[in-house]
Design goal:
Blueprint: H1 2-11, H2 19-34, E1 39-42, H3 46-58, H4 70-79, H5 84-90, E2 97-99, H6 104-113, H7 121-127, E3 133-137, H8 144-155, E4 159-164, H9 171-174, E5 177-180, H10 186-208
Parallel strand pairs: 1-2, 1-3, 3-4, 4-5
Helix pairs in contact: 2-10, 3-10, 4-5, 7-8
């Protein structure tokens, strides 16, 4: 969907070097979702907030309301004739995604019992399946717990996407696609990560829920 990326670059001309990688990340996610896979996301600090933010855009309507299709509506109504219509009218289409940063009890147990750098890797090992995807967000590309997650993902047959700063760090070598924002400043990088994953969310929504536009 080149028009979405065109709009992204129009608003943020400094992201022109990222154009091709944003398109490749979209295609990778499109193919994984189409085949029944899910997305795992991870990051630290502000990037953890971004990991959760992206999941929020995928798991419910983003730019559209994503009404359920007729078969989904019928299943809900058949299962509960009294209240099924309430659910059918309000639930929205979802692309399955899990933010690994949100599992507080599990994450602290992993850090305490195993090692802090395995907090995301253990979850990728447990949740991830061949055909899924992992999005790693790190301004430096060198955050060790995020790198460990990418290592486990590659071993487990997951596709890997990095969202980083200019160098890409270690993630550039570990990820199938690495979107490298052309800045080194944490503030500048994080300010541009948001419009990138919003563009990805919009393209995926239009791909999988065209009737909702």
């Amino acid at each position: 969907m080149p028009e979405v990326i065109d709009d992204l670059v129009d608003r943020y001309p400094d992201l022109e070097p990222c154009r091709g990688d944003v398109q490749r990340a979209f295609e990778l996610l499109r193919d994984r979702f189409a085949a029944g896979g899910k997305l795992l996301t991870c990051g630290n600090g502000g990037s953890a907030a971004d990991a959760e933010h992206l999941v929020g855009e995928l798991m419910k309507g983003f730019a559209s309301t994503r009404p359920l299709d007729s078969s989904q509506r019928r299943a809900l109504i058949d299962a509960d004739p009294e209240e099924g219509a309430y659910l059918a009218d309000r639930l929205q289409g979802a692309l399955p995604a899990i933010a690994l940063v949100s599992q507080t009890a599990l994450g602290t147990a992993i850090a305490n019992d195993l090692a802090a750098d395995l907090v995301f890797a253990q979850q990728v090992h447990g949740y991830g399946r061949p055909g899924d995807a992992l999005l790693c967000i790190s301004t430096s590309g060198d955050s060790l717990n995020v790198v460990r997650a990418a290592q486990v993902a590659r071993a487990g047959g997951l596709a890997t996407i990095g969202l980083t700063g200019a160098t890409g760090g270690r993630l550039a070598q570990l990820c199938d696609v690495c979107i490298r924002v052309p800045y080194d400043s944490v503030i500048a990088v994080q300010e541009r990560h948001l419009p990138i994953y919003h563009a990805l969310s919009l393209m995926l929504e239009r791909e999988f829920f065209p009737e909702a536009e």
